[in-house]
Amino acid sequence: MTMWTSEELDRIEKTGELEIAALRPDGTLRNPVTIWVVRHGDELYVRSGYGQRAAWYRGTQRRREGHIKAGGIDKDVTFVDADADPALNDQIDAAYRTKYRRHEARWVDPMVAGEARSTTIKLVPR
Questions:
Q1: Domain with 94 in it: what CATH number?
Q2: What is the value of pTM for the model shown?
């Protein structure tokens, strides 16, 4: 299994946002969407602030593969559901609150609400 390098993790962690694009059934990439990303240990996680109704999230659930760009990193990834572990989700909540604390609560609170927690995805490099 491919792992993130320290440099990749550091560069992506320092960015505020990343572009994410899921693969369509025909293998082409959907249009990228800009979302927030957090690091927890040596892993990267994303969530949908709009829950499962967000088109980009639904796209990640079909083929489970796509592409991200952030901090000068351009990488193919696999999307792995990570919503089943409440303790991990609590830690990811803390990462969102810490990283995005400069933003108003109206933007951060939805990212740590139950609807968003149910869409937690780990980004695994391919």
A1: 2.30.110.10
A2: 0.94
Could you give the number of structural domains in the chain? 1
Mean pLDDT in residue range 82-95: 94
Pairing of strands 65-70, 38-40: unpaired
Distance of alpha carbon 62 from alpha carbon 36, whole angstroms: 21
Report the alpha-carbon distance of residue 44 to residue 38 in Å, rounded.
6
32 contacts 19 by C-beta, under 8 angstroms = yes
User: Does residue 1 carry a pLDDT above 70?
Assistant: no
Backbone angles phi, psi at 45, to 5 degrees: -135, 150
Q: Which domain holds residue 23?
A: 6-125
